[in-house]
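Regression report. Comparing outputs from two consecutive submissions.

Submission 1:
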Amino acid sequence: MQDRFNKDNKQRENNDVIFGRNAVLEALRSERPIDSVLIAAGERTGAINHIVALCREKGITVKDVNPTKLDYMATGVGNHQGIAAYIAAYEYVSVEDILKNAEDKGEAPFIVILDEVEDPHNLGAVIRTAEASGVHGIIIPKRRTATLTSAVSKASAGALEYVPVAKVSNLASVIDELKEKNIWVYGADMNGQDFKKTDFSGGVALVIGNEGKGISRLIREKCDVIVSIPMKGKINSLNAAVAAGILMTEVSCRRG
């Protein structure tokens, strides 16, 4: 039976995606790290309802999608049976794990929060720079974000092996919890104070926003300080990963 499952699973996998009810169910039962599950709209039969219930128990995001999306994703793979699962390249950690990482090193926490950064290459690049800058961990939301796929792992050039990533349901509440622990939250935005004139001493949580929209209104309001990178050219904004890299390097240099 296991050999049969392995064969079926191999046939149904497409990079970071598993297709088919049995394959997804077995992946959930095996405790394999799963980012999210996609279900064709209207497909809520007994087997799929059971999978949805397991996802809820494990805190895995379930999304209803147009069946044509699954058809496109499963091109060359076979019958998707109305369901697919995105597999994480690495296990996620908790926010507490990130804080303990800082504590174990005897350092004030240095955390990066990504507010709906959607490009896997940007996420990978941020992780790579975070590792070089001494960041203790990265926090991402559960929805509308790039996740720990093989593309992200590749873009990180191996840094994902060393930088813990937490995926949370509510960024705003997590920020509140960090502030209660005397961690100052700095949001990156073009309409802020010069980052070179900003005090980054103590615990730091650096917020980087979406590639197009920047930091969302609610998260911006939660920040203690908004910082910006002065621009001298005709372009008034930077790629999210580049901006994050400049700010992480600055914080790292200030910390010694």
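Submission 2:
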Amino acid sequence: MNKKKYRILVVDDDKDILELLRYNIEKEGYRLKTCKDGLTAVELAKDFMPHLVLLDIMMPLQDGVETCRQLRELPELADTHIIFLTARAEEYSEIAAFDVGADDYITKPIKLRALMSRIKAVYKKTSKEKKVPDVVEINDLVIDKNSYVVRRNNKEIPLPKKEFELLYFLALNPNRVFGRDELLHQIWGADVYVLARTVDVHIRKVREKIGDHYISTVKGVGYKFDQP
């Protein structure tokens, strides 16, 4: 994908940060739009269809966590990467961000060179993504990547982005055991620091929603999707 076609949305109520990021992101050749609050971000994203969103937490009208949750509910933005860029360094804020579907969490003050390198890595990853089946059907379970919808016995089961991607990846590779580190690499990426327990939490949540019998634990090794 050409950089001029790669769309980035920056959401922050700090005018100086918006100007700093605008200058450096546009200098690299990416398409860019900015806004100062979460409500505007959701409406703007529907039209702009960003590949990447840089999102603050503390903003007027609507905070970043709720904004991320709403963005993740839009099927047309299912493949959009969302990176939190915030002064909130507390663990509970980071956990809340990942729970609503964040791909990465970066604390301020901004290390500009590192951030631009991260944007470049996400851009390259998006450009090289390979085509895989959009719909996986196993017994009574249907996993639809086009709409980010999971159905069991024709009943829709809502899943946040990372839970969906974890289930989708395991279902694409049934009966194969994956360790936590490999799942972290496949779902969260090599450039993101996430604790191994994050995988356990997401597996537990997926099981609670679709049933315990689809994903089994191989003690001391990892997890696998069971298909007879």
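Expected: both submissions complete independently.
Actual: both completed, but the second showed a warning that disappeared on reload.
Relevant detail on submission 2: The two ends are 40 Å apart (CA to CA).
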